[in-house]
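Why should sequence recovery work at all? Because a backbone constrains its sequence more than one might expect. Tight turns favour small or flexible residues, buried strands favour hydrophobic ones, and helices have their own preferences. The token representation captures these environments compactly. In the example below, the structure is given first.
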């Protein structure tokens, strides 16, 4: 028997090789990276779609502009000014009933007639500001409003990049640790932001401020208050140029203490009120932008400021969890592989 025939019935070497035991192939899950990229797109798109970038900047401008006026000292000063005006009107009414001066004084008469309504309107305006002093302080202590959309969008950009790069790396069997780290840092930033920026405290403070300022920060109301100053300035001019002199000429001993107090207080008083009304006028559009931003989520059942902190925290938790998924590679098969493919 020949050597060839003796070994012809044995399996070929290639058959041994094809049935050699192989370690199970391990891969990294790719879907978490796809979800991370999608969350990144949402974080970038949300402030763009809601107009948050320009509206938040206007909100920040309004908060800064009203800061000097929403203080106890400032409001007490305005109330003191009103008391001086009260005293002047009372003085005029008393003089007209006891020792009226000769002549006609239409501007003084208009002041006497219109001042009760002027006082009521300005007092309600001061009450609205005073009631919201603490809420306003809370809002002013948060991170600058103009930075908030960036604090959403920038982590979103990081997540888009990390998600795409990680998806590709995972497809090549890599754990994509570097891209997970980038995503994890973005998630951590989203979690820390509402806590560090004071957004949870700001959420219940925003709506009362909006509701309190809504009646006074309108073009119609600002113009009405500006009209009050026309009445007051005209009355003061007539009091000093004609009325007080006529009273003194007719009644040298007449009590003019209320009118005199108004004259002594007039310059600082008008300066303070003009500054407040000017700030109101300059911020009507800024306030409208804040209201529009707050209302953009109403179809979802909540206002934007109520949900703002959660809009950072919830995506941050999701991102952090997704970044951790798949750190341990997933085996595609175990045991012995064979040429028939029965074990995958």
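From this structural description, the recovered sequence reads:
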């Amino acid at each position: 028997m020949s050597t060839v025939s003796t070994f012809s019935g044995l399996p070929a070497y290639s058959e041994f090789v094809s049935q050699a035991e192989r370690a199970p192939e391990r891969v990294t899950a790719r879907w978490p990276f796809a979800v991370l990229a999608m969350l990144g797109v949402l974080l970038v798109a949300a402030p763009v779609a809601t107009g948050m970038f320009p509206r938040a900047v206007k909100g920040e401008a309004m908060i800064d502009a009203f800061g000097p006026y929403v203080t106890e000292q400032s409001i007490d000063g305005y109330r003191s000014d009103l008391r001086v005006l009260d005293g002047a009107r009372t003085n005029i009414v008393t003089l007209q009933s006891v020792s009226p001066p000769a002549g006609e004084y239409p501007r003084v008469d208009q002041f006497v007639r219109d001042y009760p309504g002027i006082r009521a309107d300005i007092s309600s305006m001061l009450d609205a500001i005073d009631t919201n002093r603490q809420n306003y302080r809370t809002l002013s202590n948060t991170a600058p409003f103009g930075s908030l959309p960036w604090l959403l969008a920038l982590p979103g950009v990081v997540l888009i990049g990390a998600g795409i790069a990680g998806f590709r790396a995972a497809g090549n069997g890599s754990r994509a640790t570097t891209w997970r780290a980038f995503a994890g840092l973005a998630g951590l930033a989203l979690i820390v932001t509402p806590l560090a920026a004071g957004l949870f405290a700001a959420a219940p403070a925003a709506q009362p401020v909006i509701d309190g300022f809504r009646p006074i920060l309108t073009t119609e109301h600002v113009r009405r208050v500006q009209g009050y100053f026309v009445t007051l300035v005209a009355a003061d001019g007539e009091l000093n140029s004609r009325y007080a002199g006529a009273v003194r000429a007719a009644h040298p001993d007449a009590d003019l203490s209320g009118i005199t107090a108004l004259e002594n207080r007039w310059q600082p008083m008008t300066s303070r009120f003009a500054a407040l009304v000017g700030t109101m006028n300059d911020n009507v559009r800024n306030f409208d932008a804040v209201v529009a931003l707050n209302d953009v989520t109403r179809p979802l059942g909540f206002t934007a400021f109520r949900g703002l902190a959660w809009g950072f925290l919830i995506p941050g938790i999701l991102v952090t969890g997704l970044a951790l998924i798949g750190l341990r590679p997933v085996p595609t098969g175990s045991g012995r592989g064979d040429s028939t493919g029965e074990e995958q």
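A few observations help interpret the result. The CA atoms of residues 139 and 202 lie 5 Å apart.
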